[in-house]
């Protein structure tokens, strides 16, 4: 892991040169940190999803969207402070995070609709597959644009 105050990856926003790291290359420690944050965020996402479906009797697609938003806010906070140790102001990082998250929400919703509606999978299994598919989108997009 990087030391305090470092951005979480070398070469953030650089144009190359000695010591610059390609934005799409992820060190194992950063991937592990991102994964652990993802587990915590997923607990919030799935807790919201299941609670809204089972208790509030909301459909799985809108419940998944609500869970995505809750998990996303947890993810932002933990990734900002721990995974990427961003120095970027929240004023700059948060709008970019919301753009990345909004694109991810669209992908999440499309995948959930396809997997529960067209394929006929049970909603929790569909969400597990959707979460796995979106892991790399969120890691690379946030690393490249949100926290650099």
SSE blueprint and pairings:
Elements lengths: L27 H27 L5 H24 L6 H29 L4 H24 L2
Helix pairs in contact: 1-2, 1-4, 2-3, 3-4
Structural summary, described in words:
There is one protein chain. With 148 residues, the chain is mainly α. The chain has one domain (28-146). Helix content is 70%, strand content 0%. The chain has four helices and no strands. The chain has helices at 28-54, 60-83, 90-118, 123-146. It starts with 27 loop residues before the first helix and ends with a helix.
What average pLDDT do the residues reach? Answer: 84
Main pleated-sheet profile? none
Distance between the termini: 16 Å
Strand/helix succession: HHHH
User: What is the count of DSSP helices, taking H or I runs of 4+ residues?
Assistant: 4
Name the helicity range: over 70%
Question: How many strand units?
Answer: 0
Number of domains: 1
Shape: elongated
Q: Given the helix and strand composition, which structural class is it?
A: mainly alpha
The fraction of residues assigned to DSSP E strands is: under 5%
> In angstroms, what is the radius of gyration?
16 Å
Low-confidence stretches: 1-19
In short:
It is built from 4 helices and no strands. It has about 150 residues and is an all-alpha fold. The chain has one domain.
Give the tags.
4 helices, mainly alpha, 148 residues, disordered N terminus
């Amino acid at each position: 892991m990087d030391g305090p105050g470092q951005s979480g990856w070398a070469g953030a926003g650089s144009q190359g040169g000695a010591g610059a790291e390609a934005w799409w290359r992820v060190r194992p420690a950063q991937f592990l940190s991102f994964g652990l944050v993802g587990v915590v965020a997923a607990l919030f996402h799935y807790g919201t999803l299941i609670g809204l479906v089972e208790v509030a009797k909301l459909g799985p697609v809108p419940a998944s969207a609500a869970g995505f938003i809750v998990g996303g806010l947890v993810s932002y906070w933990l990734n900002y402070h721990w995974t990427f140790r961003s120095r970027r102001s929240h004023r700059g990082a948060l709008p970019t995070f919301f753009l990345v998250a909004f694109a991810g929400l669209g992908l999440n919703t499309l995948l959930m609709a396809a997997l529960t509606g067209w394929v006929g999978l049970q909603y929790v299994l569909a969400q597990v597959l959707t979460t796995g598919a979106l892991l790399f989108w969120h890691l690379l997009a946030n690393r490249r644009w949100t926290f650099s």
